[in-house]
Amino acid sequence: MDVTKTTYSTIARLRTEFLRENNIQFVLDKCYRYDWADAYAFRIDGRLVGYGAVWGKEKREDRDAIFEFYLEEDDRALAEPFFRAFCHASQASYVECQSNDRSLYPMFERFTENVETDAILFADHHETHFQIENTALLPRQQPNPDDCHYVLASQGEEIGEGGFMLNYNFPYADIYYNIHEAHRRKGFGSFFVQELKKEIYALGRVPAARCNTSNVISKATLSKAGMVVCGLRLSADLRRQPEE
Predict the structure, then answer these.
(1) Which of the following CATH numbers is that of domain 2-119+233-238: 3.30.70.2730, 3.30.9.30, 1.20.970.10, 3.40.630.80?
(2) Residue 159 · residue 187 · CB < 8 Å
(3) pLDDT (tens digit, 9 = 90+) per residue, 57-91?
(4) DSSP of 134-159, one letter per residue?
(5) pTM listed for this prediction
(6) 3-state SS, residue 206
(7) Half-sphere exposure of 192 (CA within 13 A, CB side)
């Protein structure tokens, strides 16, 4: 067994398999695009069998948090030894994980402590048909090509803004929105999310979203707009001696 730092091109094929198997929006996928991550190759007798990745939990340059771990199916009996070796090679102190990540989550449960829930993850479940008279999305040009930004206008007044980000693993698009204080609790939030979902599907993408665990209103809004909780985004301390 060997675990060594490597280039993204070395592990690109395995990352494709990782994303295909999990079939989820992977929140930290963009780390590679922006060079925020270091990759490690896992080999047995020189044969590439898996990989892992780290980034910075607080500062991106620190590379102190494991966020990705994957082994090919025939070698998964060695998951725990490889994870221990990865921890040693990377000198990571933390793990960040989605609970719907079938590759890393078992290691997260086995080798971490002081777990915190950072966000609730949502996937689209069903179509809704809300109608609010004289209310519509208006597109706004953004300098960032990954940001499809809109305002929500009602009776000629802009009452909210939001959109979706495209810098996640295809085909997912990440929804964000905000309704101005004076117009909350009137159904505009769910209508906004509903209409953003339509725009996303028109682009051949799939809607996804997340919110803070304490944001009860946002959770209710997303649920009312046809989205369901599909996982949690978690972070924790890596045990100092994971080999035990």
Answers:
(1) 3.40.630.80
(2) no
(3) 999 889 999 999 999 999 999 999 999 999 999 99
(4) TEEEEEE--SSTTEEEEEEEETTEEE
(5) 0.91
(6) strand
(7) 31
